[in-house]
Amino acid sequence: MKGLMQDHPLLISSIFEHAINNYPTQEIVSNSVEGGIHKYTYEDWGNRTKQLANALKDYGVLEGDRIGTLAWNGYRHLELYYATSSSGLICHTMNPRLHHDQIAYIVNHAEDKIIFVDLNIVDLIKLAAPSFKSVKAIVVMTDSKNMIDLELSNGIEVLCYENFIDKKPIEFDWPNLDERTASSLCYTSGTTGNPKGVLYTHRSTVLHAYGINLKDAIPYGAKDVVMPVVPMFHVNAWGTPYAAAMCGTKFVFPGAKLDGESLTDLMNQEKVTISLGVPTVWLLLLNHLRDSGKKLDTVQRLIIGGSACPRTLFEGFGEEYNVDVIHAWGMTEMSPIGTANMPLYNTTVKNKEEYYDQKIPQGRTVFGHQMKLIDDEGNIMPNDGKTQGRLLSRGYWVLKSYYNDDTQKDRFFDGGWFDTGDIATIDKNGFMTVTDRNKDIIKSGGEWISSIDLENICVGHPSVANAAAIAIPDEKWDERPMIVVQLLPGKEVSKDEILNFYSGKIAKWMIPDRVEFVDNIPLGATGKILKTKLRDMFIN
Question: Are 354 and 503 within one domain?
Answer without folding.
Answer: no
